[in-house]
Design a protein that fits this description.
seven-stranded parallel sheet; 12 helices; 35% helix; binds NADP nicotinamide-adenine-dinucleotide phosphate; three-stranded mixed sheet; alpha/beta; globular
């Protein structure tokens, strides 16, 4: 969400009405739209979000409320949101557990369901079967992980996915395969219960942005803000892909509004890019002078145990095509992307806000095995090796 949007939402929340029943368009001049987002008054919808309080959920809720929709969430009440906290005063929260308690979901009606927390096939079977007559659409948050192993060079939505775990797997392949197999089978269960015409499957790549619960992408905003000699792993031609969580969240709401059933990769940037332009683009968020040092020898990186610094993933073996996912269908169906430097700046501001604990910040920079703490030594080795 842009700053002006966030401000709009805060102002709107301060007005005191129950926002889900207010229409954002009732406040002309206070809202802003991205270039390819057509301002219009969407029909107010009732949306159930399975989950809602982690990373993606708060952004979906903020955008949906802004567009006049009413939101119900279903979760255990354990996860505490670290972004968009104000919006939760305007949400109906149902408590339960996907493992064994779906009681609060019974005998209710919604226009659409968003399933963010479907991380076991059985959970998805249970909710999709239970709710197939309770809503028109079921949007399942899947992942580009369904394409693992990433062997193609232009991975489209109809690329065949592995449906069963190959025998004899060891880590790290085991976790990767398990996640992909779980996601693709969950997708199929949604389509089985709701039918393809009432199913929306969204497969995001690595999401980044305010509220990220992983320490993956945040490496770059923090590191680039500091400037100096910056290690850039990988070859200049290594492809990278990523997406702002807010772009995924907002687009999901619009897909529901527009009843766009189908399966979509949610991947940015809009056209293919590589690691070096990514680093330059992200650094544009800061004014710190930086000297980029390309550490472009995979063997050296492997010896240093640097196989990925998201969005960079060493493009070898099963990961060869992990950043070669095709986003044309998504772009043609309304996916709008935030400029990289804006995402990086917003993420940096969030990281340095009260919403993130100092301990977490310290760990990223100086924790045991923190890449940032090892960087100087790695660069020294790299320079002496080249001589
Ligand atoms: N992060 C990425 O880069 C990425 C990329 C591709 C796909 N994805 C997918 O994106 C999805 C979105 O994840 P998110 O965490 O951001 O979603 P979210 O909806 O913001 O948060 C996850 C929610 O799941 C709830 N939950 C967890 N266990 C539960 C249970 N047993 N019963 C009921 N609710 C439960 C949590 O609340 P409680 O803990 O309070 O129950 C929380 O509200 C995931 O399916 C993930 O696989 C993520």
């Amino acid at each position: 969400m842009s700053r002006s949007r966030r401000r709009f939402l805060q102002n709107a929340l301060g007005i005191g009405g129950i926002l889900p029943f207010m229409d954002a368009a009732a406040f002309p001049g206070t809202n802003t739209f991205k270039a390819n987002e057509i301002p219009h008054r969407p029909q107010p919808l009732k949306i159930l979000i399975l989950g809602g309080t982690g990373f993606l959920g708060p952004q979906q809720i903020a955008y949906a409320l802004e567009r006049g929709h009413a939101i119900t969430t279903f979760n255990r009440g354990k996860t505490v949101p670290t972004t968009q906290k104000d919006v939760f005063n305007h949400v109906e929260q149902l408590l339960g557990d996907r493992e064994n308690n779906l009681e609060s979901l019974k005998n209710r009606k919604w226009d659409a369901i968003i399933d963010n927390s479907g991380n076991k096939v059985k959970w998805v079977i249970d909710t999709a079967q239970l709710l197939k007559d309770s809503a028109d659409f079921y949007l399942y948050t899947s992942s580009t992980g369904v394409y693992y192993p990433y062997l193609g060079s232009d991975i489209k939505e109809n690329t065949k996915a592995v449906l069963t775990l190959p025998p004899g797997l060891k880590e790290p392949q085991l976790s990767e395969y398990s996640y992909g197999v779980m996601k693709i089978n969950s997708e199929l269960e949604v389509q089985k219960a709701f039918g393809e015409k009432r199913s929306i499957i969204v497969r995001p790549t690595y999401m980044m942005g305010p509220g990220d619960r992983t320490e993956r992408f945040i490496y770059w905003p923090v590191r680039l803000s500091r400037g100096g000699d910056v290690m850039v792993p990988g070859k200049a031609t290594d492809p990278v892909q990523y997406i702002d969580v807010r772009d995924v969240a907002n687009w999901m709401i619009r897909l529901i509004e527009e009843k766009k059933a189908g399966t979509y990769n949610a991947v940015g940037p809009s056209s293919p890019t590589t690691m070096h332009p990514f680093v330059y683009g992200a650094h544009a968020a800061f004014s710190s002078p930086a000297n980029f040092i390309a550490v472009n020898d995979y063997n050296f990186l492997k010896a240093e145990k640097i196989m990925e610094v998201i969005p960079w993933i060493m493009p070898v073996d099963e990961n060869k095509g992990s950043a070669l996912i095709n986003n044309q269908l998504a772009m043609a169906n309304g996916l709008a992307l935030t400029p990289l430097a804006d995402s990086v700046r917003d993420m940096f501001d969030w990281w340095n806000s009260d919403d993130v604990k100092q301990e977490r910040r310290d760990k990223l920079v100086s924790g045991t095995d923190a890449l940032m703490a090892r960087e100087k030594e790695i660069l020294a080795k790299w320079k002496s090796r080249k001589k």
